[in-house]
Amino acid sequence: MRITRSLAALVAGVFLSVGFAAGAGPAHAAPLAPVAKVEVDRYLGKWWQLATVPSFFGVTCARDTSATYTYVDAKTIGVDNQCTGPTGMRGGVVGRATVVDPQTNAQLSVRFPQTPGSINPGSAPNYIVAYLEDGPNPTGPYQYAIVGDPTRGSGFLLSRDKVVPNSELRRLTKEIEKVGYNPCTFLVSPTTGGRSDYSPLCTV
């Protein structure tokens, strides 16, 4: 792989430290599988979190959670996670994502060195791109992504658009199920101009 600008994402993570949520996937499910290939140029840029498996690191976010990925070098992606807290203040954390699977570029090790309590996974992947969907331009930026850790203890549904119709959420819920998650463990992420609730995704 020419890792020169072809790599896998997410680290969408929007607050992508491995979060814990019991029952995120089937009890005996195989590890979360990566997509066949991620093209870094199409994954970079800003993503909005539409839904997530709740985690300790997301409790400070009330709405408008986003992740922006930037190219650093052949093996490294910059991660800038932002959200609006309960008081209306915008804040976030910055980190780095390292590609640990050069065959697919879809498995990364993400860390946030300045964040108390965050875990340094070393060379183990804690950010796996399990689903990607093209946008209007099939060679342009990806439109949707589903990412998580190998055990499905964390999970994120990401979109280039801040607000999407409920019909799209319902369609994407089926994709979440296909990659082995229980969609009822995902909660809707509130966005300005969009949904304001934290309902389980399976009830949308």
TrEMBL record:
Domain spans labelled Lipocalin/cytosolic fatty-acid binding: 38-187
Signal peptide annotation: 1-29
Keyword tags: Signal
Highest taxon in the source lineage: Bacteria
Biological processes annotated in GO: response to stress
Entry-linked InterPro entries: Calycin, Lipocalin_ApoD, Lipocalin_Blc-like_dom, Lipocln_cytosolic_FA-bd_dom
Keyword Nucleotide-binding: no
Sequence similarity: Belongs to the calycin superfamily. Lipocalin family.
PANTHER family in the cross-refs: APOLIPOPROTEIN D
Name recorded for this polypeptide: Lipocalin
Source organism per UniProt: Gordonia lacunae
